[in-house]
Design goal:
Layout lengths: L1 H29 L3 H34 L8 H24 L1 H4 L6
Helix pairs in contact: 1-2, 1-3, 2-3
Length: about 110
């Protein structure tokens, strides 16, 4: 679950970027910009699921620290969860930023 939270955002961004890049010529010829919007929504949902997994790992790490007396350094679980939350937030913003031009520009525009 720790790696899911950490890697879901970057993988969703890469899939979003490549899928949109591959679909633009087809959408330009056939129409149907909605397909590009659906890819963006799907990537946002994958990133949000990764953020949820990271949040769960982060909260589990905090419970582990309390069970051990709270004197030990930050646990790996808590660190991976926090890093996954930050990574998911960053890639969520990147995916949204890449989706915004699709609302203003037609895919055939050069």
């Amino acid at each position: 679950m720790q790696w899911t939270g950490l890697l879901a955002g970057p993988v969703a961004w890469a899939l979003h970027m490549q899928t949109n890049y591959a679909l633009v010529p087809w959408v330009c010829m056939k129409g149907g910009e909605m397909l590009l919007y659906l890819v963006s929504i799907f990537a946002i949902l994958i990133t949000a699921a990764g953020a949820f997994a990271a949040w769960r790992a982060w909260s589990e790490g905090g419970r582990e620290k309390e069970a051990n007396g709270g004197g030990d350094p930050i646990s790996r679980t808590s660190f991976m969860g926090a890093l996954g939350l930050l990574t998911s937030a960053m890639f969520l913003l990147v995916i949204i930023a890449q989706a915004i031009p699709g609302f203003f520009f037609h895919p055939c525009q050069r």
